[in-house]
Structures are given as structure tokens and as C-alpha cells.
Amino acid sequence: MNEKKKNKKKNRVIMRSVILFLMIAAIGYTLYNNATAEDVSVLKVGDEAPDFKLVDLEGESHQLSDYKGQGVFLNFWGTWCKPCAKEMPAMDRQFDVFKDQGVQVLAVNIAQSEFEVQSFADQYDLSFPVVIDKTKSVMTAYNIIPLPTTVLVNPEGEIERIITGEMTEQDIEGFMEEIKPE
Amino acid sequence: MTLAEMSSNFLYAAFIAYLIATFVFGGAVKGNKAGTYNSESRWGKTAFIITIIGFLANLAYFFTRWGATGHAPLSNMFEFTTAFGMTLVGGFLVLYSLYKTPVLGMIVLPVALLIIAFASMFPSEVSPLIPALQSNWLAIHVSTVVIAEGILAISAAAGLVYLLKVVDLTKKSKQRFWLEAIMYSLVLVLGFVIASTYFTATGYEANFSYVDKEGLEAEIEYKMPPVFGMNEYTALSEGTMTPIAEMPAVINASKLTTVTWSLIVGTILYWVIRLIARRRISAILKPFVKNVNLNLMDEIGYRAVIIGFPVFSLGALVFAMIWAQIAWSRFWGWDPKEVWALITWLFYAAYLHLRLGKGWQGEKSAWLGVIGFTIILFNLVAVNLIIAGLHSYA
Amino acid sequence: MDKMQCQCGHVNPPGTILCESCGRSLTEKEQNSKLVDMRYEGTARRSQTYNKSIIDKVWNFFSSVKVGVGIIVAILVAAAIGTILPQEEYVQVAVRNEDTIKAYYSDVYGEIGRIYHFLGFHDLYSSFWFIILVGMLAISLIIASLDRFVPLYRSLKNQRVLRHESFMNKQRIYGKGYAQEDVLAKSETKLKELKYNVTRDKNGLLAEKGRFSRWGPYVNHIGLIIFLFGVMLRMVPGFYVDETLWIREGETRAIPEVPEYALESKSFELETYSGEEKDGAFSEAVDRVGSVAKNYQTDVILYKKPEDSLPGATEDMEIVEEYPIRVNQPLKFDGYAVYQMDFKLDELKAMTFALTNKETEESLGELTIDLINPEKLYELENGATVELKGYYPDFSGFENGEPQTATPLPNNPGFLVEMTTPETPKGETSFILIQNTIEPFGENQFKLEFQGVETRDVSGLTIRKDNTLPILGLGGLIFMIGVAQGMYFNHRRFWIQQKANGEIILAGHTNKNWFALKKDLDQVSAYASLPAYSDQQEEIEKQLKKEGEEAL
Fold first, then answer.
1. d(CA B117, CA B267)
2. Are C56 and A13 a contacting pair, CB within 8 Å?
């Protein structure tokens, strides 16, 4: 009888502890989700870079997966964005240095007209491919909010680094070094 | 006669019928010495029939207006508030047919009259629906809510009768004070009606330009002599009263002026009544509730909540969420009206738990019933007129 | 606390008020009261009985109705405070960030606004303490229900027909007296006719109806828990999508969060009530208010991309459907819904100019520049051309002699053009702005004269997916079933016993609506000639009233 009573009591405490624990865990989890709700970004460093296919000013298609084995320097930009314009010449110079070492630069313009993009490319005499994301689908897939944003994709096709804001020439050099194939 | 005109005539008819029925119920109360449900007098029967006639006219108003506007007449302050008056009477009819208590009619009908009169102070012309309201859910959601509120309000009426009987008016007490405060606020509503009617009848108008809280120029029309001026106002009409004080931009001085006039007129009226009768309004009513069966009143109050609560949950939360999901893409957005519907619901949930779990019956329950009605009124009046939100249609 | 043994021999769990078996009062307080406390059938609330470890104490805390009501009232008050000033999401600021919102509250509402923001009331409903309050309510719902449901269920399941007389005579409805021999049989017949379940045991009878209404509160609590669970799931990534898409007439856009679909806006339409003809009934209202919106509508084409399509690729998109999105009529596809939420009217789309000789005012022809997709060269009659050298959709000034654009939107377009005519074969350069022309290389012979604009509207659409809706719906449904079950049905019981001396005692109880219970009993009495009964609560009150009057 006493044994039974003791067991019952033990069961009761375990039962209650489990229920309380579950409830408190649920509340904690909700609080955590609530606190982090705003900075949930779709992509993180280490994720596989979403594949995409865009057409450049010459009418040539570029598919990210075609560059597997090379590092891809993915720069999202617009003509109205001053820091974007500032880093373009430096990117172009560094592309010249690194293009033979297996680093590709793709400049993704956000849904502007061909005229504007072409004038810009002519003005800065850009030698890397400039593609236009007409439906903003690549921008959406990469969850790009501020411009410029640069996504470094390593030769394995994974995201190595995400940089928001302007880069200096040294930065660019270092980043290209980072994604250069061995 | 157009449908819209017919509709307003029906509303007048209903109003008059309710007015007559109030007095006949008063007579029935005087006659009902035993105070039980099976001693319905001839007066009571007559009053009941007059109320039914009034209610039918009220329904006729509702459906003819529906015909005239092409949508359920529940889309602005006038329509919703009028419907609330109607469902209040409807709720009373249901509970009267169960319990045969004329004293309830004597309380409910004047309140319904006040509500309908209050409603008539708002623009009552037939108005079209904005896109957000163009949905069958308007009829489904709002009518369920207004029916629920009508039923829940009966609980306050029963509570008031209960309190009138049990609160000792000969001794100073908190209860005596608050009971009289309820009476006073009812008189204030009448004050608002009188003030509005008077200034509308005399065609008072004063225009001002002012700077709103976003810092933009705006214009406003006062329908009552401006006691308070808007932020950085300039008068646009001549020969009108100069405001006594200027208000900051967050306060709508025009509405504050309306409130002030209602307070002035209402307070004068209250003291006139008190001085003539030489006692409190609650004391004037006290003799009428002498024979009231307290148990029965308690049960009516409780039943009203029990019948009304599920209807309210369905209309103000479930249907509301379904429609909000369709119209605004989210079922819940913490809009003030939504929040106050939730508050009302939580309040009645607390009422039920206190009653069932803690045995709060009788007087406590009666007070809660009255407070519940205050919350409903707050949601109806203050949330629409003072707190801006998606539901501010009027 | 020890187990409590009743005089009848039954052993009750500690904390019991009325013996589970015979109904005798077990506590002193109960023994002295005139009516028994029938809440939860006088069973012990489980948690009351143990109060040892911390777990038990926490459990007991949440099990109490007082605490439950306290949490409800706390949520109620907090929710009300949140409506005093507008919540952050409804505040209109030009640039939205923490500082501007903070500044808004103190600028517009002064000191009160500052304090309101400081206390975190501007975002009250997602503040951690509000979520904790709701979470506590959920805990209370579960624990309080468990603690009450289990003993109540047991007690109602094991009801005995024969109760002790002290249980019977402390019921609100009670009667005692002599009646005919066949009274039990006749009562049974009538009660069965009234849809009661009747159980007989020796010389006693128990009639019961609507017991399931007692489970109503627990059912509706289950519904609420499911609902709250759904709300919790919404915050889990992937369950819930809420995106905004601004789309201009003529544009095709990828749908945020829905990579396999794209949306094209054909046109946006804003209609207002005219107050005439069909809506003539509303003329008075339209006159008073000025303008009332009748319809906001975006006509869209929904495209689906091929299975293996990549972001960026626009080939082979398949038209799924064309649909007019209106308020209250969202476009639905594949678990997603697209809502008409907002709009901007009249963004510039194209501008038309005439190439004009300044002196003779003779026009060499017109050209229209598409501001969204301008061309490089425009050829006019007589071999005149206009070449676009630069395009700045939102011109914001010069920097180092370079024209700048602030945004990619054509809010204030600027064009750098070279005009070539047979008269001016070398070409003339001009920089054209709205209502302003700059001629950087000296006076020109020709100018581009503004002729007109075309505009387009922008639709603000919301893309929504909410996988929790079925869960929320289920919770709501169960809740509604629970409240209806608990509130629209009543649990009524009668106990009738014939004592050895032939005396009949009867008692009745209901959880609510005594009025209807009495009506039922009146019918049975009329048929089976039961002894008269009284409502003891009314008796008590009459007594009190009499005492009160005598005291005066």
C-alpha cells in the first residue's frame, strides 16, 4: 500500500514536471522566434548559392552553376546607387588581375532598363558581364535588401561571405583571394 | 415615398412604440405585487404587445433600408447603433417571453430609446460601401455581433434592476455612488441628444483651419459653439464664438467641444430632475423594483450572458477573423476595434469563471453585468470616434 | 492531508467536500451550511491535495481559478493600454526605423508619448511580457482543466442513485411528503418522456439529462489550446509568409517567397462613387463626404515557370490565370493568396516631346520616350534624329558635372539628348528636365518641346501564406462546439427516494437555468403527484428579507 502510494506520488511529480516543462519550453521557443522574427534572412554563409540564369548586355546567358570550380564574385547594384558606382572601377581592375586565376565577376543589375545599364557599363568601361534581373527574381532568391550587396560564392558553389555596403579596392582584392580556387 | 423614406418612417414608428411601451411597462410594474413570473398582468401583456409592434416596425426599418442601400445597414455609426438598439429590444423580448418580468422592460426600453436617439445624431443618409466592406461577411459578421451585444446588454439591465433593489440608498456608500453614476451617465447621453438636436435645428456652423498632428494644414467644421479650439486654429466663419482654450494637435477639440456641451446640458438636466424630485434618480426608480424577485433577476442576468457569450464569440472573434483574413490578408492585426472585441470577450470569460469557479452571484454578478455593458459601449462609441483605426467608418 | 472516510464507509480523496458515494457533507463548513456547494460535485480539486515540491506549488498556482481570472484581467488591461496610442505598425513616418518611431511618439504625443514608448507599449502585443502572459494563460487553461475534469468525470460516472438524506435536503430544490405507492414508477415514466435517463436502485430513482454539457468548458479549453498552438506555429519559419510587392502597370515581377510563380500587372483601377445614375441613392452621402472609393482593382496575369526553371529565366512561362484582384477578392493559388492592399496613382511612364525650331516654332516631328525602357535613338521626319545620351529617372542634381539619379523610379526624369537635324548636322546637346532645359554647350537652334505624359499606377499587393489556418480553424471550431455544449445545454438531475415509512423525499439540481428545471419538475409532479417542493435559496432570501425588515 505504502509502496503503491509512493509510486503514485512519484508518477504525479514526473507527469506534472513534464507538462510544465513542455509548456515553458513552448513559451520560450515562441519568445525566441518572436525576437528573431525580424532578422530571419533566407541565406546564410555556408548555404548553397541558389542557382540562377540571367542574360547580359551582349545577349549571352549566364548560369551560376556553369561557374562551378571558379569563385564567383556576385555584385548586386543599380545605377542610382552611388557606392555601387564607386566600387565598380576597383572591381573592374581586380577582375583583370583575378580572371585568369579562376574568379568570375557577375554584376547583377536590379530591373533597370537596358539603356541605363548599357550607358553605365560604357561609361565605366566594364569588362565583366553585367546581367539584368528583370523580374527581381534573383534579388528575391538572394533576399537582397540594401545595395550594393556582394555575395561571394566559392568554387564549391557555397556562399563564402555576404557583404552589404561599399567595398574598398583592398577589400575587393582580399575577397577575390578568398574565393580563388586552390 | 422612396424606400429610404419609408425606412425612416418605420424607425419613427418603432421609436414611438417603445416610448409608449415604457410607460405601460411602468404601469405593469406597479400592478405586479407578487413579483413572480407567473403573475403577468394585463398591463404587462399590453406593454409586451406594443413592444412587439415596435420591434416589427424596427425590423421593417432594417430591411427597407437594406433594400434602399443594397447592403446590410450595418456599415456606419448610425446604422450600427440603431441596430444595437433594435437587438437590445430583441434580446429583451426573448427573455421577457421566458420570464415575464415587466420591470426589465421598464429599464431596457428607455435605454434602447436613448441608443436610437444617440444613433440619430450621426449622419443617417444612405451611404455607399467602401471596398473593404463590400462582402457578404458584412451582414454575417456585424449582425452576429450586434445580436450578441443586444443580448449581453440585457444582463446589464437585469443587473441594474438587481442593484436598484439591493443597494441601500439611505446610507453613503461606494455602491450608492456608482449606481447614481450610471443614472447620471444615462442622462448625459440625453444631454448629448438635446445639445446636438438644438444646434442642428438652429443650423449652427463654425469653420476653422488648423494644423494637424502630422503638421499639415486642415479644415474643420464645428456643429456646436467652439468651447475649445483646434491646434493653431484660425477662424474662417464670422460672428461665431471665439474658443476659450486652444488644444494641442493630438486632441480633437471639435469632439471635445461636443463632449463639453453634452456634459453641460446633461448636468443641468440631471440637477433639474434631482431638484424637482428632491432625491437621487436611483431613489426615484427604487419604488418600481420593490417587488422584484432577486433570484430571478440574477438568473436573467446570467442567462443573458450564457446565451450571448457564444454568439459574441462567433460573431466578434470567429467571423471577424475569417473576414479579416479575406479582406485584410490577416485574421488578426491588433486594430483597436479588434482589441476591444477581445477585451469584451475576455471580460465575459472572467465573469463566467468568477461565477462558476468562485461563486460570484447576486450583487457582484450584477455589477459585472453593468461593467460589461460599459465595455460594449466604449467599443461602440469611443473606439469609433476617438481611437483611430481600420474600423473608424463613421 | 489524509484520506477522508465518510460515515457510510466510503473512503474519499483528501479535500473532498461531499462524499463521493452517499453525498454526506464532509467538512465542517459544509455541514453547517443550509445548501450544499455542488460545484465540481463537491469533489477534491486534485491539486489542492498535494502541496509539497516546487513542481506541486507551481502546479497549484496555475490550477486556481483566481489566478486564471487574474491572468485574464492582466491581459485585458494590457490590451486596453495598447489602444491608447496607436501601435508602432500603424504609425506613419517617412523613414521607418527605431529612432524615427521613437521621435514620432514624443513629437506627436509629448511627454505621454515618450513614456508610452519608453515602457514598450508602442509594440505591446509582441512584447516579451505580453507573450508570457498569454503563455501563462495557456498553462492555466491546461492545468486547471486537467485538475477539474478528471475528478468530475470520475464522480459523475460513479454516481450512486441513493444519496444520504443530508445531501438531498441541502439541495436547492427539495421536497418531502407522502405520496402514492406507485409514485416512483409513475415518475420514471414521465421523466423518461421528458428525455431523462432514469436509473433505479431499490427504493430510489436518479433521473439525469444533459450530462455532456458539463464537458463543455473542457472542450472549449481544448479548442483554445489548439488555437494558441496554431498561433505559436505561425512564428516558426516556413509556416507563414507575409510579403509586400509593389508592382507597376506593365511590369512582370517574381513573387517574393514563391519562386516558381511570377505576376504581371496589366492595369490598376480606382473607381469612386459618382452619386449619379446607378448609385444615385448615395448622392447625399457623396456630396457630404466628397469622394467615396468604390473599387480598387489590379488586373493581373499569374505565370508559372517551368519545373526546372531557374531564378532569372523568363522563358516558357505558362499563364496560369488572369484575375482581377480586388479588396475582399484575393488571388489564390497553391496555398498562397495575393491581396490588393495599397496603391500609388500616376507615376510617370512616358513623355512625348516635339523637336521644334525655336525661332520659327516649326515642329520636325514628335518622339515618345518610354521612361521604363528608353531607346537610344529616335528617328524623325526629314532625317532629324534625337539620340539619348543619358537618362536619369529621378534626377537629383549634378556631382562633378555628372547628372545623378536618386532612385530608379521616374519621379523626376532628366534626359541628356543630342538633336541632329539637316540644319544642324553636327548636333546640339541639351539636358531636359521637367519645366527646365539646360543647354551646356551654348545656345541651341532646336529644342524638345514638352507635349504630354503617360502615367501608370502602382499596386501594393500583399503575398500571404498561412499554413496555420487549418489549425486555427480547428481550434475555433472546437471552441465553439465547447461553448455551445456548455452553455446551450443544461445538466439536470432529480433524486427521488421512498423511505421505509413511505415518505417521499425529492431533490433537484442543475448547473444552470433553474427556471427550466422547475418546469420539468412541475410536469412530473402533476403526473405522479409528488410532494410539494420548494426553492430553498429563495426561502433563505425571503428569510433574510424578513429579518432585515424586522430589524428596521
1. 18
2. yes
Chain A 142-181, CB below 8 Å of chain C: which residues? none
Q: Is the same domain home to A12 and A59?
A: no
- For A157, the domain range is 53-179
Range with the largest mean pLDDT of A63-67, A156-160, B302-306, C529-533: B302-306
User: What is the rounded CA–CA span in Å between residue C3 and residue C7?
Assistant: 13
Q: How far does A137 lie from chain C, in Å, by closest CA?
A: 5
A28 and A79 both lie in a single domain: no
Does A28 share its domain with A113?
Answer: no
CB pairs under 8 A between B and C: 154
Listed residue (C453, C245, C269) closest to C349, CA to CA: C453
Residue A70 sits in the same domain as residue A36 = no
Q: How confident is the prediction for chain C on average, in pLDDT?
A: 87
Q: Identify the three-state secondary structure at position C413.
A: coil
Binning pLDDT at 50, 70 and 90, where does residue B361 land? confident
Measured N-to-C along each axis, helices B77-99 and B294-312 cross at an angle, to the nearest 10 degrees, of 130
Question: ipTM, 2 decimals?
Answer: 0.89
Least CA distance to C407: which residue of chain A? A80
pLDDT at C137: 95
Tell me the domains of chain C and their CATH numbers. 47-148 (no CATH), 159-210+490-551 (3.30.310.80)
pLDDT at B35 over 50: no
**Judgement on whether residues A75 and A165 belong to the same structural domain of the protein:** yes
Running DSSP on this structure, what letter comes out for residue C394? B
Measure in Å the smallest separation between the Cα of C479 and chain B Cα atoms.
9
pTM for the predicted model, two decimal places: 0.88
Look at residues C350, C348, C326 and name the one whose alpha carbon lies nearest to residue C337.
C326
Residues 90-149 of A with CB under 8 A from C: 110-116, 118-119, 131, 133-138, 140-141
Residue C494 has a pLDDT of 93
DSSP secondary structure, C443-509, as one string = --SEEEEEEEEEEEEEEEEEEEEETTHHHHHHHHHHHHHHHHHHHSS--EEEEEEE-TTSEEEEEEE
pLDDT at B15 over 70: yes
- Whether residue A63 lies inside any domain: the answer is yes
